[in-house]
Amino acid sequence: MYLVTADEMRRMDRTTIESFGLPGRVLMENAGRGATAFFLKAIYRQSTGPVGVAAGRGNNGGDGFVMARYLCQKGIPATVFLFSPKDRIQGDAAANLKLLDSMGVPVVEIVDKAAFEAQKLLMDRQRFWIDAILGTGLSSDVRGYFKTVIDSINNLNRPVFSVDIPSGLNADTGQICGVCIRAQATATFGFAKVGHLTHPGRSLTGKLKVIEIGIPPHVAETIGCRQHLITADMLKNAFPSRQPTTHKGHAGHVLILAGSPGKSGAAAMAANASMRAGAGLVTLGIPKSLNPVLETMVTEPMTVGLPETDQGALDESAFERVRSLIEDKRCLAIGPGIGTAASTGRLLARLIEESPVPMVIDADGLNLIAADPAVLSRRKAPVVLTPHPGEMARLCGLSTAQVQDDRIGHARDFAQKHGVHLVLKGAATVVARPDGTVFLNVTGNPGMAAGGMGDVLTGLIAGLIAQGIEIFLASRAAVYLHGLAADRLESQKAPMGYLATEVMDTLPEAIKALMGENGRLFWPELDELTYPTRPAGE
Ligand SMILES: NC(=O)C1=CN([C@@H]2O[C@H](COP(=O)(O)OP(=O)(O)OC[C@H]3O[C@@H](n4cnc5c(N)ncnc54)[C@H](O)[C@@H]3O)[C@@H](O)[C@H]2O)[C@@H](O)CC1
Ligand SMILES: [K+]
């Protein structure tokens, strides 16, 4: 499912109108009619009463005029509060405003703060609000008079329904431009916008419905839209089917380099998560003094003690041993709990340059790369990086706040610049491919804000790659499954307090839910088999 930016939506509207020949007026009619149906279903059915339509001077306001007309036709009292002089409304919106006049729908012109104050009583009487003030045409922070209007509507504490996007929300980043409507539900047109599903936009949008308004689906491809939503549908066939004769060698062998004193748990979780992902075998390479501890912490994974520094971190001299360990592996994951010793950094750099198998790099591995991300261009095999916003900030030389302001943009830029796959963790994880294609994940919940979740994700991605799943697909499937497992725990257990190891242990259930029928092996039922009733020859 495509997620579009404001500019892409504008280009799609234009292509549909100019090349496809569908008039803008028809699009606006479809938008307003569809939005009304959703408003009645999602908001208005709870109770009844007068509806205030707050309209701006652009086409978003035009959609609001159409909605007011349909409400009036249904006998629902609607008043349009027009936050612009009537004579500044143009085009399709102006045509729809005229229709309101002829239908007798009241339109209250509010052109400045004084007029706004004068209408406060009438505004207070409205039981519901439709927000058609600003849509994808928002071009800067909302200030002054419009800011007061948006604040006042929020403060009325009435159910608010947004047309296309909550007014004040940046459609490209999900960031608030000065102030923003808090909607209970939003009807958007043609395609969901990136900002609807990126935080904080997601919580301001409320329940979202995409209304089909007549834009042909192929137009998204024509204009080169590169953002998508991760859906179960695109992942359900990701897992290679297992034959009755499949053995652990077929299911792939993962090598994980992890751990340092005080961080042996990270190594154990990453290794066990690869097993939970379905990898056939996992070998865990750790600093040798940690080997006795890890031997008792993990059961299924094998452990190998590697040369270490005086402080007990992985040492560069482990390189030859690791290189020989990689030979029969399908994926190398490195980073959980490895620390940031310079010698470990040199080991990592040499592995990036030499590893013939895909690498997943996480945690301290990312902090080590941050000193010289150019090493990534010398990789032999594909690389997946899994930073959280803080690690991403170090990789990009930015502040965490700057990364969070445009998560998709930074993830895409880094992936393109360094030719890597990048998983930017956090609410609505972003998965970017070296060509700049980006997918957004919406599974998961705030209960995941706990130590160890990242280690589990690293092991999960590696475990999926080891099973032969293409790297970008494996990365998307992993973030989806990781969130899905946590969502199960949240609904069955508690909103927080569940552990990373519990998420890990729930992964097989999440995989089963994702695979659906594809996950079942169809053995013949016993009564379908025919047995000789007596031994042959008797
Ligand atoms: N044919 C089309 O283009 C269609 C557009 N549609 C609607 O049209 C909307 C986009 O319409 P427009 O491009 O006219 O833009 P909007 O209606 O979103 O807003 C544009 C107006 O807001 C003003 N504005 C921008 N930033 C502001 C700020 N920070 N503070 C105060 N005023 C600000 C602009 O000067 C402009 O007058 C969509 O969100 C959607 O609701 C739908 O009707 C479907 C068809
Ligand atoms: K709006």
Automatic annotation (TrEMBL):
Keywords: ATP-binding, Isomerase, Lyase, Metal-binding, Multifunctional enzyme, NAD, NADP, Nucleotide-binding, Potassium. (6S)-NADPHX binds at residues 59-63, 135-141, 164, 266, 337, 388, 455. It catalyses: (6R)-NADHX = (6S)-NADHX; (6S)-NADPHX + ADP = AMP + phosphate + NADPH + H(+); (6R)-NADPHX = (6S)-NADPHX; (6S)-NADHX + ADP = AMP + phosphate + NADH + H(+). The keyword Nucleotide-binding applies. One of its GO terms (molecular function) is ADP-dependent NAD(P)H-hydrate dehydratase activity. Binds 1 potassium ion per subunit. Its EC number is 4.2.1.136, 5.1.99.6. Residues 9-221 form the YjeF N-terminal domain. AMP binds at K425, G426, A427, A428, T429, G454. Transmembrane segments: none annotated. In the N-terminal section; belongs to the NnrE/AIBP family. Belongs to the NnrD/CARKD family. HAMAP family: NADHX_dehydratase, NADHX_epimerase. This is Bifunctional NAD(P)H-hydrate repair enzyme.
